Amino acid sequence: MSKGKDQYNVSTVQEADNISCSIRSMMLPCRDGVRLHTVIYFPVNMPAKAPVILRRSPYCHKNIIEPPDGWALKNGVVSIMQSCRGTAWSEGVFDPAERDSEKKDVEDLFLWLRKQDWFDGRCVMAGASYPGWLQWCAARSGFPELVGTAPRVAPLYSCTGSVIPGGGVRLSFSLSWMLTMHYRCHFGWNDIPNLEEKGIFRHLPVIEADRQSGYGRLAPFRKFLSKAEQPGRHLGIVAGDFKSCRVPAYIVGGWFDLFKTETVESFRLMQAHAKTANARKFTRLTVGPWGHGGLLNPDLFGEHCNYADTGVEDRTMRHLGGLLKDPDRDPLPSEPKVRYYSLSENQWHTADCWPPEKVRETAWFLHSGGNANSLTGDGRLTARKPGREQPDVYVSNPDDPVLSNNGGHALLGCYDRTPQQKRSDVLIYTSPVFRCPLAVAGAVRLRFTASASTPDTDFVATLTDVLPDGRAMFLTTGMIRARFRNSLDREEFLEKGKLYEFEIDLSHIAVTFLPGHAMRLEICGQHFPQYDRNANTGGRLLHDTRLEKSVHTIFHDEAHPAELILPVLDPAP
Predict the structure, then answer these.
(1) At 3, which helix (H) or strand (E)?
(2) CA 316 to CA 249: how far, in whole Å?
(3) With contact defined as beta carbons under 8 Å apart, do 355 and 367 qualify?
(4) Secondary-structure percent of the chain, ordered helix, strand, coil, rounded to 5
(5) Quick check: 472 and 465 in contact, CB under 8 A?
(6) pLDDT (tens digit per residue) in 192-238
(7) pLDDT in tens, 112-147
(8) Which of 430, 462, 283 is nearest to 364 (CA)?
């Protein structure tokens, strides 16, 4: 056994699939003196020097040692698991709003790794969700020892602050994750309070949710939420991170994951701005019909449409293993740059970029006789430009909000939106039934003119696929906070009754509207609890205690056309 290994206590563990390894457990010091619990798993009969697969996570338990990476042990690779500061046995405070903290901690780990005489100089990283975000932190550090990453359903900005594009707050996630993490860090993983049952999502002011949960004033929680008060500063810093990325990534996400926008944008930013040619050329993207934890709707997409059965696990390991052997060779030379699943037709497609090259933006226009309210209204969606038409009016009442995921925190994936579309405070615009397929792949946008009766308010747009049996299946959504309509860097309030132009980014999607189906657009004032409720008062965000109704008027006439911009994929010749 080498000198580098002898400095730690050694034990042996039998891994789940019958692989033995040696374990070292240590408290690795960081530059500020905080020590992070780090477990190293050495494969049996490893050579004198070996590469490393690293996983950093805030989700390790304090009463067990997490199992090693089976793939690593089988392939003679050292597996390292490190708990983030403030979690499990690691010292310090878990404070994800301090975005550079994780970068510094992984830099300190790399500096330690360089000194180990058993390390051959090459390391890869893997992990999903926050551990995926930690890979982007490591890639930003620029350490040459890191040769590859595999972030899955990984945020770029949502694990460091509550704000989303459009200027709103990712409410139920921010409250649930931050308050649950506080409980885990201080009280363990048993008997975690159900914030949804306790009514925390509806509590006002939002910033006091920590006290309402019985924890007192929590600085990390309030720092995380308060990023919504300066959305431009928080969201705008992300693009620059990729200029430091030197290593290829195998990026995986889902169309029904909260972080799908960040998944797709990370790939686009890698292709456009990564520091090295290898990082730009070897990076891959796969987006499937998944939520944050995998397949949500087996009844729609099939029980075998999961990560393993669709080849994601195999390609991830080939990507990482190939880079460990030779970082200068494409580890997946026969694989396309992009694999994406087209919803409704339930087919996988490939492309060299995102959106695919043959996409063209096509406008569909909103029409009605002034009564598009609910499914019983007269709202239509066609390719014909509007003429003289009456606007549509509805009352946005944050005290009785339009619901996301049928009112729950848990993501439902591709679910029926019909219950919400029956409400009179939801405008509904439906296309004619399609006779030929219409393939959409890319970012969807809505441009429109509107007025409101309050100094601030939200507009939310949701796209659904109407099946022949009448179900309206959720595809994608987006919002705009009126005070940030022109810039996320400054607030501009509305004058009552004055007309303003808005644009909503509904994010990325791939769907084929099949013959017999129709396309439907919803417009309303909330998407709760996924997004926070705008109080409509113009008061300080997160601090409102009073909710006010707002009258919204949506125009769609010749002078003010309302356009749904679709990225339509030209059919193959």
Answers:
(1) helix 3-6
(2) 9
(3) no
(4) 25, 30, 45
(5) yes
(6) 999 999 999 999 999 999 999 999 999 999 999 999 999 999 999 98
(7) 999 999 999 999 999 999 999 999 999 999 999 999
(8) 430
